[in-house]
Amino acid sequence: GSFYTFFGQFVLMVIFQIGGIGYMTLLMFIMYLFGIETSLMVRLTAKESLSGASLRVLGKFFAITVIFTLLFEIGGALFLTLYWLRFYDPIHALWYGIFHSISAFCTAGFSLFPDSLMKYSDSILLNAVFDIVSLAGGLGFIVLYEAVIFVARKYDSLKKSRLSVHSKLVLITTLMLIIAGTLLLLITEKWDSSVDCFHKILYSLFQVISAHTTDGFNTINIGTLSSASLTVIMMLMFIGASPGSTGGGIKTTTFVITAMYINSLLKGKSSGVVNVYEREIPKESVNKALGIFILFIVIIAINLFIMSITENLDFRNILFEIISALGNVGLSTGITPQLTLIGKLLLTTTMFIGRVGPVTFGYFVFGSVKNTGYLYPHEDVLVG
Fold first, then answer.
1. Rounded distance, CA 62 to CA 68, Å?
2. Is 326 within 8 Å of 353 (Cβ atoms)?
3. The pTM is what?
4. Cβ atoms of residues 142 and 51 within 8 Å
């Protein structure tokens, strides 16, 4: 806000709008509008980009994605504009409303104010708008679509109403992470004596949702938080939002499936079978979740090792910066301007990997796995 002109701000907004809903979404939506036929390969790629839309309703699904995006962004912009009309002229209030609403839904975290949203930390309306809009972006279009259909069919006795296992996992995990994160932040942070209980909850809830949805906004100074509070935020940034959303991180379902797999092994179940809601999760999904989890740990470890050599900064702050970059969050303890050129380039690369996904990036670097046409005989190896 203090450096870029209106044109520069507009360019950034367009970029994170496209990055939020995905270029494949826009492409398929345009093709759907004009009735352009697409090849099976294009449709399969598009299906993968939103993690779940069936090929049969792909065009319609992308149209619904755009509708949800416009619905939440216009709604958020309207409320924010009305709020900022109290402080700015109509043109500036409207621009601030549009920019921040899109930034929140696309979980970009870009703000036109030098302290993010710290000077508005006590506003219940502003907290609520940002929380709702960023949560909508972080839940994922699949979950939003199913939730609307579920509610609509509740009032129609002739139609069955049921959420998929994916949507149930996302909604329950999101709720649990927000409640647990808020309670932990309330307990672990060393609050100033002037902050009352209501505002402690208000600040904690906002920062937990910000870290979980990876929207990157802050209403409190991240650099002054205690080590325990930063750890809570780092864990939330690592888990991140949900598949098919605008957010980053390993994703909620990846975290849950990995946790269930470990629980299954500890209970001695054969082959670490993962069962949830009377359904068995396919082995391919379990393996992918484990792969993503391990790749994120490896990328963080490599970054941490290199930056521990190149940067003369606090180890805790470096780790926070790395997880924030990999999860595409944008939160910082304030050390970003002090990073060396190597550190900045490394984090830029890390943000790119976090956005396209470590598995996709691995395919790009190493190529897809080819079937060898033969199998080797088994031989056991002692582990653990």
1. 10
2. yes
3. 0.88
4. yes
